[in-house]
Design goal:
Blueprint: H1 2-11, H2 43-61, H3 66-73, H4 82-93, H5 106-121, H6 127-138
Helix pairs in contact: 1-5, 2-6, 3-4, 4-5, 5-6
Length: 141
């Protein structure tokens, strides 16, 4: 199952494996062949969606640390090893688990999203695609 999700994230241009909901994201592919996860037109659009979800975590739920974000993103009740996921993200970003992150600071969010993408997809992400996603997120595309 984990390998399937890693492949899905890449195939769906959805590097954080955002589950399908009623939300109509900008950048969605015309066809949505995956019944569980969104499919985006390109990886930058998938990264844009990730930045928005994480901003929502901050504003709506008060989640500002790696520990808190990952606890919601990959909760143990969904079969995730949440502690291991958070440890990997902290190791990849260099952020301590309780560092307060700013959803409008690319020096916080780009490494966080890159690390989460690496955990989700199992491959090193393209920083140029993440930067492109940041530009879409900030409306500077």
């Amino acid at each position: 199952m984990e390998k399937l999700n890693k492949q899905r994230g890449l195939r769906n241009c959805n590097p954080l494996n955002i589950r399908r909901t009623a939300d109509l994201w900008q950048g969605l592919a015309e066809r949505q062949p995956d019944p569980e996860f969104f499919t985006f037109r390109s990886m930058p659009w998938g990264y844009r969606a990730a930045f928005i979800v994480l901003r929502t975590y901050c504003h709506k739920y008060g989640l500002r640390t790696v520990r808190d974000i990952i606890a919601r993103w990959a909760p143990p009740e969904d079969g995730n090893d949440t502690e291991n996921y958070a440890r990997k993200v902290c190791a990849l970003t260099g952020f301590p688990p309780d560092k307060c992150l700013n959803p409008y600071d690319p020096s916080h969010m780009a490494p966080l999203v890159a690390a989460m993408s690496r955990v989700e997809c199992g491959v090193k992400p393209s920083m140029s695609q993440i930067k492109e996603g940041w530009s879409l997120y900030m409306g500077t595309d």
